[in-house]
UniProtKB/TrEMBL annotation:
UniProt-listed Pfam families: Fer4_7, PNPOx_N
Residues of the 4Fe-4S ferredoxin-type domain: 159-189, 191-218
InterPro entries: 4Fe4S_Fe-S-bd (IPR017896), 4Fe4S_Fe_S_CS (IPR017900), Fe-S_Ferredoxin (IPR050572), Pyridox_Oxase_N (IPR011576), Split_barrel_FMN-bd (IPR012349)
Record protein name field: 4Fe-4S ferredoxin-type domain-containing protein
Length: 245
């Protein structure tokens, strides 16, 4: 029987519940991975999340650090953390520098260990920045199959699921056959994808003979249609449907 929960929440949890859960758990994890762009290349480091409040994540960094200058050049930031329970929380969006000493003092009050690193007024080499608008997801790998739910906060809108089935579906069933976790099932005359269960591996997208499965996030994956499909040879021959001849 498939688990109907994700990270302790109902699969039907609303956006506010998902956001609150993700922010709370990221703060518990505290040391999370942050990714930026540096000269067109990815750059990542582990940084402590200083505060997680309603629709707002707060961090700080030194003005001399490459991280600081990367954010000044491109405020786009991706955040990911995973606890010992194998539940991943991911957030992305644009950040804003607060330019506020009061905000920095507030973060030091919430994280007193910072006084050991930057005692007294030496803290003011640091700058605080916040993410107030963004999208995210909870990916629960503690169960099989894993479960995924997406959320948004601030003025951002929820990112669409990676794959969807359109009206070109001929109900051949090849997508369901190659799905590793059974996320693709027949819904009356067309197949559908359970987005809370989908691994987004792309197997159904590659195998579909009628291009009925569309990628809703990026055109980058379009090239995979032209890649030789090794797994196809492993599929058992299908009985022709006389209605399609």
């Amino acid at each position: 029987m498939t688990n109907s929960t994700i990270a302790g929440l109902s699969l039907d949890a609303n956006n506010e519940e998902l956001t609150t859960k993700a922010f709370t758990e990221l703060r518990k994890i505290k040391s999370v991975t942050l990714a930026t762009v540096h000269n067109g290349n990815p750059a990542a480091r582990i940084i402590d999340l200083m505060l997680a409040e309603d629709n707002r994540l707060s961090f700080l960094t030194g003005r001399g650090k490459a991280f600081y200058h990367q954010l000044k050049n491109n405020p786009s930031l991706a955040i990911v953390g995973m606890g010992s329970d194998y539940i991943m929380y991911r957030v992305s969006g644009k950040i804003r520098f607060t330019d506020s000493r009061d905000e920095l003092d507030r973060l030091f009050l919430a994280n007193p260990v910072m006084n050991d690193l930057y005692p007294g007024e030496k803290r003011y080499i640091l700058e605080t920045f916040v993410m107030e608008n963004g999208t995210g997801e909870i990916f629960d790998l503690s169960q099989t199959p894993p479960r995924r739910r997406r959320f948004s906060f601030g003025k951002a809108t929820i990112t669409a699921p990676m794959f969807a089935v359109n009206d070109n579906c001929i109900a051949c069933g090849q997508c369901a056959e190659v799905c590793p976790v059974g996320a693709v099932t027949l819904n009356e005359t067309l197949f559908k994808i359970d987005h809370t269960q989908c691994l987004e591996c792309g197997a159904c997208y590659e195998i579909c003979p009628s291009e009925a499965i569309t990628n809703q996030q990026s055109s980058d994956i379009q090239a995979t249609r032209d890649v030789p499909k090794g797994p196809r040879a492993l599929l058992s021959p299908r009985t022709p449907d006389p209605l399609q001849n």
